[in-house]
Design brief:
23% strand; 6 helices; alpha/beta; 7-stranded mixed beta sheet; Spore Coat Polysaccharide Biosynthesis Protein SpsA, Chain A; 262 residues
């Protein structure tokens, strides 16, 4: 029961928050991607894994896990590789959500390969995927709850949370996706500027990984396959996305979080 996810909000600028989700398998599990080396955050990440870098007084991975717990997600599978012992020790202090570790100490498997290894822990139903450094200032309603409400298993293979390029802190790229009024996504073309960037949160079906390659591969491979099948959709983040990719971005993110609580 995820009572906190019920209720109404203003319509999203993609898949409508008022859409009645299709009857489908319950989503109770999330994959939190925490195995990366965080090379752009060096020299900090030479001694501390990026998920444990503190923003606003809390480790980035705790921001992500707190959002999952608040949305009623019972289990989070966390993959580890770089400075894995530190992440495992940190997570021992948590009681919500329940934490399961997917160990990648033997080989860094990238985003897609990491999820494929963790499938036995994730179970047979669709699941959430979060980058452990996904950070945003929430709007009136939980964005994870909005994703769960708008997920339609009959129409979608993947549903991405997207941030508006124009209002995101610390992002200066050309965007990742263009989105039609019904939420269907396409990639940015060469030399094109598009309105939305992937915010590092998604709902995915486990069936997508059945014929995925062994070893390391990127989730972009599955995104592109879903685009080709017209089954990749997006939901615009209600709030402000904070892109914390470098040491210099930490102070700006902390200042924005501090201002949002005044």
């Amino acid at each position: 029961m995820r009572a906190i996810c019920h209720g109404s909000s203003k319509p999203a600028e993609s898949v409508s928050d008022r859409m009645a989700p299709s009857a489908g398998r319950p989503i109770t599990t999330a994959m939190v991607l925490a195995a990366g080396r965080g090379t752009r955050m060096r020299p900090i990440t030479d001694r501390i894994p990026k998920p444990l870098v503190s923003i606003g007084g809390r480790a980035m991975i705790d921001h992500a896990l707190d959002r999952l717990a608040d949305a009623g997600i019972g289990t989070a599978v966390v993959n580890v590789h770089h400075l894995a012992d530190q992440i495992e020790a940190h997570l021992e202090a948590r009681s919500r959500p329940r934490i399961l570790i997917s160990d990648e100490r033997d080989a860094l498997l990238e985003t897609g390969g990491g999820i494929k290894r963790a499938l036995p822990l994730l179970g047979p139903s669709p699941f959430l995927v979060l980058n452990s450094d996904s950070l945003w200032i929430e709007g009136p309603r939980s964005n994870i709850c909005r994703l769960l409400t708008c997920w339609d298993e009959d129409r979608m293979d993947i549903l991405l949370l997207l941030a508006a390029v124009a209002t995101s802190l610390g992002y200066d790229g050309r965007g990742d996706f263009a989105m039609s009024p019904d939420g269907l996504l396409r990639r940015r073309e060469a030399r094109e500027v598009v309105p939305f960037v992937y915010a590092g949160v998604a709902v995915m079906k486990p069936e997508l990984f059945e014929d995925a390659p062994a070893g390391a591969f990127s989730l972009n491979r599955l995104f592109d396959r879903a685009i080709a099948a017209r089954r990749l959709f997006g939901l615009r983040l209600d709030g402000e996305w904070l892109h914390v990719g470098t040491p210099e971005a930490i102070a700006a993110a902390e200042a924005r979080i501090g201002a949002s609580t005044l």
